[in-house]
Amino acid sequence: MATNRLLIDWPLTPYTGWGSYGIQLAQGLIASSVARPVLTSYADRSPHCDPHWLTRLDELERFSRSLIEHLRANPQEVLSTNCQVVLSPIGNQVPALRVLGKNQVGVTFFERSQLDQAYQDGLEQYQLVITGSCWNQKVLEDIGYRNSVLVHQGVNTSLFNPIPVPRLLQRPFVIFAGGKLEYRKGQDIVISAFRTFLNHCPNALLISCWGNLGNVGLDTIGRSPYVNGSPGHGNGEQLYEWLLGNGIPAHNLMMPTIMANMQLPSLIKQADAAVFTSRCEGGTNLMAMETLACGIPTLLSANTGHLDLLNMNLEHAIGLGQTRVGNELEQGSAGYGGDEGDLWGETDPDLLVEHWLAMMTQKDAWVERGQRGAQKMASMSWSNSMEKLIAILQNRGMLTE
Question: What is the average pLDDT across 16-36?
Answer without folding.
Answer: 94
